Amino acid sequence: MTSVQLSRRQLLIVSIATAGAWLISRKVDAESCLLTPRQAEGPYYPTAAQIASQLDRDNDLTRINGRTGRAKGQVLYIIGQVRDPGCRPLSGATVEIWQASVDGRYNHPRDRHNPSPLDPNFQSWGRQITEQDGRYLFKTVIPGQYPAGPDWIRPSHVHFKVQKPGFQELITQMYFEGDPYLEKDQIFNAIPPAERERVVVKLEPPGQKLEPGSQACRFDLTLRA
Asked: Which of 33, 77, 158, 212 is spaced 20 to 30 A from 200 at the CA atom?
């Protein structure tokens, strides 16, 4: 067994204990289970060929099997729960994320003209099935901002796609509190003002069970039946 394989197995074990601690420590009420705003998928969801050829389809985007290096950037743990509008947790939901690297570059054919370099050690897309109590966890890096048009810089964001039989598919984006480009972002501002805070997270210390020097955030997702 390689050290990379061992670290990934440990990550899955840590996800159970750590995500559970975060969920228990936060009060759940009707306000926190309002529907998560929907957003467009965007142009950089991985192609079918990319997904089929990607050997790593796990929840650790900071390393790729067979390589000794690690993705550049600030390590980030995204911890959350998938639930219905009644705050009931949804097990067996498929949660996917994809994002730009720390340099603001997507590993996607449509971003090939981006002058920023690709990070060969960044997985860029991952998937996890929620636990019995709806928990999920991803280990990734904080994505970089990048120009999206004249006088438009996209803030740091992570794309999410969530699927669960019996519920409508949810596609959304997660943003970071305090990002200087958030206020003027056209895509973020398309969300009704009263709903915007549901897709903005606050970075917090990782606690003792996660990697020292990393950051953590909680992003809960409420699906529509």
From this structure: 212
* 225 CB-contact burial (10 Å; exposed 0-12 / middle 13-18 / buried 19+): exposed
Non-local (6+) Cβ contacts of 154 within 8 A are: 145, 146, 147, 148, 181, 185, 187
- pLDDT tens, position by position, 136-173: 999 999 999 999 999 999 999 999 999 999 999 999 99
**Dist. CA 76–CA 93, nearest whole Å:** 22
Active site residues: 106, 146, 154, 157, 159
Check: pTM over 0.70? Answer yes or no: yes
- The token pair at 49 is 């060929």
Structurally, the chain folds into a number of domains equal to 1
Which residues lie closer than 8 Å to 35 by C-beta, 6 or more apart?
85, 222, 223, 224
**Cβ(201)–Cβ(219) under 8 Å?**
yes
Which structural domain, as residue segments, surrounds residue 129? 3-222
Domain with residue 91: its CATH number is: 2.60.130.10
Residue-wise pLDDT for 37-58, tens only, equals: 999 999 999 999 999 988 788 9
Cα distances (Å, whole numbers) of residue 193 to 33, 36, 176, 182, 198: 17, 13, 16, 13, 10
